[in-house]
Predict the structure.
Amino acid sequence: MATRWRVAVVGGGITGLAAALRMRDRAPEGTEITVYEQSGALGGKLRTGELAGGPVEFGAESFLMRDPAGGESAAVTLVRRLGLADRIVHPTVGQAALAVDGGLRPIPGGTLVGVPGDLAKVAAVARPTPEADRDGGRPLLGPDEDVAVGALVRTRFGDDVVDRLVDPMLGGVYAGRADDLSLATTMPALARAARVEHTLLGAVRAAQAATPRAPGEPVFGTLAGGLSTLVDAAATAAGATVRRNAAVRELTPVGPGWRLTVGPTRDPEHVDVDAVVLAVPARPAARLLAEPVAEVATRIGELDYASVALVTLALPEPALPALSGFLVPSTEGLLIKASTFFTTKWGHLRRSDGLALVRASVGRYRDEAQLQRPDQDLAATVHRELAGVLDTPLPAPVDGHVQRWGGALPQYTPGHLDRVAAARAALRATHPTLALAGAGYDGVGIPVCVRSGETAAEEIITALEGSGR
């Protein structure tokens, strides 16, 4: 008779919790699932807190409603699986702006992460070079080619489009720079189109046509009550044993399975399991794999990360524009790279007392020295820069919070997808009962992380079924 499966999920972020839940849903009854979380809290970058007596997100604030193929995103599917669909809410104000030339200008429509599909629409914020986007008689990219976003867009549309549109859009998501980030990873639809189309304008339009969206259909959603409700519900539904403050320090192959060394060096605990989902950032994953699978550790250990700080201020009745927020190009010389007007953007957060919650994101890749400032200094700088961008005095905050996320955002350089594919292929060939999952491999955003965790769980199930265990 087959023995009960014992599966360890290392990492209690939304990726690990999605893996644990999928394992519970699909694995044989009686499967023992244990989630090991190094910190004292589950959820990773999903963290709902409280400020001035009301809820506010100190990490991710929303999820995409649709996947790239136009279907329901993995996050929405998970929300439905957990019985939380009635809590989904959408932004009530969707227009955002760019802080350029000392003022706010609406972000032009018709772009793909800032790359325009209609050059005339971006003329108010950037000066494209349409003459450079000539048809050379062949596709922009070869069949397996990957390039930095900035390299392609600068060549075709000029520096202005990159510096004033694409860079702030990518910076808002990745805290990175267009000249470093992989096109295939950050804009997969555009990369696919660029392997067929002969001009960048044609590639953008083809990518947009491949993922149509019905007019008025919401792009983003969140949960009334905060995204921590998603974390709690997933942890409960997974029925896993959750070990908080439990750092996994070593992974050792033991037959077809694994031995985990958990806890402090002076008093380690050894746990034997049949399979492991490794849902931690790439660098800690590389450290765990350095001994058992050195080739994989080398490949994934190359991935770098950016650190950010999120500064949230509670302002009494400020004069805010009717915007969801704004992005800031690095050329503007400000500490702030993005700001969200929470109580304007999300109608369910608006308060009868007129108090506004405004959040600013601080920190760009390779500029982490700015994050060494004390919390009070960061908050004061954000307050001053917000007033400057809005060109109006702002009242003193009645409350504030600084959330630092060290090494939070992966920086995908060209060739990232090939490196990850090679690492996973090596694992399948030598250690099929270990699977990698998370933003470090598959991309940022709640839906991508959920899908990554679920896919890893499916791979583990297939491997264990194949082993006859």
